[in-house]
Target: alcohol dehydrogenase
Amino acid sequence: MVQIPKTQKAAVVGELGQDVQIRDVPVKTPQELAPGECLLKMICTGVCHTDLHAAMGDWPVKPNTPLIGGHEGVGEVVAIGNDTVDSPVQVGQRVGVKWIAHSCLHCEHCRKGFEQNCDDVRISGYTVDGTFSQYVVSWVHTVTAIPDELDSEAAASILCAGLTVYRALKYSETNASDWVVIPGAGGGLGHLAVQYAKYIGRRVIAIDTGDEKEKLCQDLGAEHWIDFAKTKDIVADVKKLTGGRGAHAALVTTALPSGYTQAVDYLRPGGHLMAVGLPAKAHFNAGIFDVVFKSLTIHGSYVGNRQDAVEAIEIAASGAVKCHYMTKKLSDIEQVYDDLRKGTIAGRVVLTMDV
Ligand SMILES: [Zn+2]
Ligand SMILES: [Zn+2]
Model:
C-alpha cells in the first residue's frame, strides 16, 4: 500500500497571467473520494502549449483559479472512491489523465461518442485541478489504462498531442497511399502526426522550418519537406509534389491562420481540412467558392473520446509512434513556460513530480 500524505507539492497559478509557484496543497483522503473518483499518485506529466494559454487566460472561456494546470499525466491508482460500481481500473494500475477529465456518458454528445463535447464536461487543468501536482483526483471511467510495454514518460504526451492528431487522421476520410499535408510537422503535435500518418499508410508532406525540424520529419518518415521560410509558394509546392492534383487531406497543427488558408488552396477536390491547431484569436478566411466548388470538407477535430485514446496509446505501445521529449522537474515549470513562449522546444517536455 502506498502511504498517502496529507499535503503535496503542486504548481499553482494564483491569478491568471501571474508566474507559477510551487505550493503545498492538501491531498484528498480516500474517504473523501466520491463514487467514481480515483486518487492517482502522479509519475510524470507532459507540458502542452494549452497549459500556457490557460495560465495566461488567453482564451474566451477562463479557467478556475487558483489554477493547477496539466492534462497529459500518468499516475498510479492509489485509491478508488467507496461505492464505485464496475471500475474498469484497479488500485496499483498505471493510468493516464487527459484533457477531458470527466464526461457524463449519458448526454446526446456522449451517447454519440463525442465525449469531448459533453454537456457536463470537466477539463483537467482548466475546470478541475490538473496533473501539475503529486496527487490528482480523476475518474475511473475516463482515465486511460497504460499498457506495461509503454513507459510513463513516453505515454504522457500521447494522451493529449498523440490522441488529438490520431483522431484527426482517423476522421480524415483518407485511404492508404493518400497524400496528407502536415503544417507544423516539426512541433509537439506535428511530429506525432507524421508517425501516425505513416503507421496508417498515408504519404506525408511535412511543412515547418529549420534544419533540426527537417531532419526530425525526414527521420520519422515524411516523404517530402517544405520549409515555409524558404519557399515562395507553399500551394504550388504541394501541387507539384502531388502530381499537380493537390493533397487528399491537410492536418493543420500549426496555430498560424495562414496554415488554414493555404490548405484550402492546395487540397484536391473532395479533400479534407482537419482543423486542430488553436490560434488564440483568429478567424478562418476561406473562399466559400473554393470550398463549395472543390467539395471540400472542413472538419474541426477536438482531442478525442476514450476509444480514440485507447487506440492512440496502443499504437504507441507497439513501438510505431514515439514522442520526442526531454525530462525536467515539476519545479522547472516556469522556465519551461518561458521556453514555450520563445518557441525553442523541439518535441515535448515531460516533468517528473520532483521539486
Ligand atoms: Zn494538450
Ligand atoms: Zn455527456
User: Anything to note?
Assistant: The mean pLDDT is 95. The first strand starts at residue 7 and ends at 13.
